[in-house]
Design a protein that fits this description.
Radius of gyration: 19 Å
Number of strands: 6
Oligomer: single chain
Strand content: 5-15%
Strand order of the largest sheet: 1-2
Length: 275
Amino acid sequence: MDKKAKQILFNTYWSTKGWKSEKFTDPQDFEYAKKMGLMFDKLSISHDDCVKRIIKAANGISKEQIAQAFLSSLSLHKLEWRSGIASYNAAKSIKSHKYKPVATGHGFDENGRPANFSYRCGVCEQSCGLCGNDYYKNVDLNVLNFERIKWGGVRHSDLIYVMFDLERFLEEEISQPTRDDIEIFKNILVAAKSCEKDDYPSILRDKLKDIPNFKSNKDERSVILEILACIGVLEPGSYNRPVRGKNDWFYIECWRGEDGYNEDVVKDYFGKYLE
């Protein structure tokens, strides 16, 4: 990855204080980062074309490649490599289909009657839990790439992100996992198994801090847990559980220590490396 282009991308959205309120990229810098494959023009695309591109991209990726990338990301701190497994997992459940709107919410008119309905694709939601819009207009792909590289992606439930993520994955040159990578992953599983029955995801996240050779901050650890929950490794035993206060969890929100990890999913994705 070109360091200058990466810095241009990051400087567009992030500062030492966090997210920038004003997003700006010098035009010459943008063209450079675009040439290096890290920044992009805005994209407008229909749901149906997005689904076609997802299926095409996923068909060009094997389960072995996606598992290899996830594991290899652990010691090298290549967070963009670990994002793809969540997108791939969703993509393999997507069948070719047309946009089928279902109402997801509404406001009220001046007479108190339901109005201003919002919609998403019911097929996407039912088949793989994705939020699919009818049409995406002038989507900022650069913020998706920033989040993908900085944290490992944060919009794994969005159809447009799945498409973007998989297409970027096809451009990556992934190295083979090392012994350190395998040990880090094993230790993540051990941490999940060692949690107390009623431990919340935040407890597991804290346990990951102590894993040798696993460079990570709090946000990165949150995302990797979300990814593992997304693909079913950290599968909640029930989705009818109380939630403590405000949090940013999504896929893993209902996971508790008693759930440990799903050995079948681990074997399916990573069995080759754990033998």
